[in-house]
Amino acid sequence: MSDRALPRRGEHSVEELEDLAFELRSKLLQLCGTYEGAVHIGGDLSAADIFTALFGYGLRVDPADIAHPGRDRFVLSKGHAAVCMYIAMAIRGFFSYEGIVETYGQLDSAYGMHPCKVQLPGVECSTGSLGHGLPLAVGMALGARHRDEDHRIVCLLGDGETGEGSVWEAAMAARSNRLGNLVAFVDRNRQLMTSFAEERVLFEPYPDKWRAFGWNVLEIDGHDMGELVRAIDALPDAGSDRPTVVICETVKGKGVDFMEHNLAWHAGSLGAVDLERAMAALSASRTAAVA
Ligand SMILES: Cc1ncc(C[n+]2csc(CCOP(=O)(O)OP(=O)(O)O)c2C)c(N)n1
């Protein structure tokens, strides 16, 4: 057993988390305006509240002690949202935002378009090929059980990604092995890369599919910080015998009106004029939300 103090969960209120989610979206857009390549901005914006709730509230992690054995492990299965994770982690104190912007997406940068745990200590899993994060998380959860550790493994998936068969093999293995220390969040933005989800794959009845695999299912509005916090508070103890999935209903491009529900904004970059428009739209949606 380690004699280091256990990492603490984030301690922000719902209102503070909402401010942090705005900060995260603003920083994402700024980076999208300076980086020359395409940023997966649509699925970053849909997941920004989930990232904020996890890194600002739900996860027991310590930026000053990233290898603590008692820390929760976060696995970004939708690895194309790496930059959103980097910035959420920067806001929690893991890295500096300026450091991310300086080298993001460049050859040999620690901040690649997909996360690499070798290049960037603090990242728990190298991901990017969709469908692999949940199987990895199942292995990590099993390992924790074997070592008698009581931390959680938290995995974020895209809904499109859950069209991969490996996700359902992992879901079955998780329940078979009674992995109550495993929690999946699904960013249910109902869009894939080039199409709307149900046009390609009949996901519905989506929550019932997870229930059929024996999971505890929570369904929430993934942009309502209060609901995110309550879902995190309602998670069963890591020692329980049933994995939990939190299905977060979201909007791809959330917060920037011309990106919302728009297939053109799965990935893209912003010129100076578009950046200004996007920042104005984000501020307007924040003002409307607090009014
Ligand atoms: C195995 C694999 N196939 C294809 C891709 C390319 N790809 C990147 S994002 C994406 C769409 C994924 O949709 P979803 O999981 O719903 O993510 P989101 O809409 O939240 O960005 C695809 C097909 C990939 N990264 N991995």
TrEMBL record:
Gene3D superfamilies: 3.40.50.970. Its EC number is 2.2.1.1. Residues 39-280 form the Transketolase N-terminal domain. InterPro entries: THDP-binding (IPR029061), Transketolase_N (IPR005474). It is an enzyme of class 2 (transferase). Signal peptide: none annotated. Pfam families: Transketolase_N. The keyword Nuclease does not apply. Its cofactor is thiamine diphosphate. Belongs to the transketolase family. This is Transketolase. It comes from Microbacterium azadirachtae.
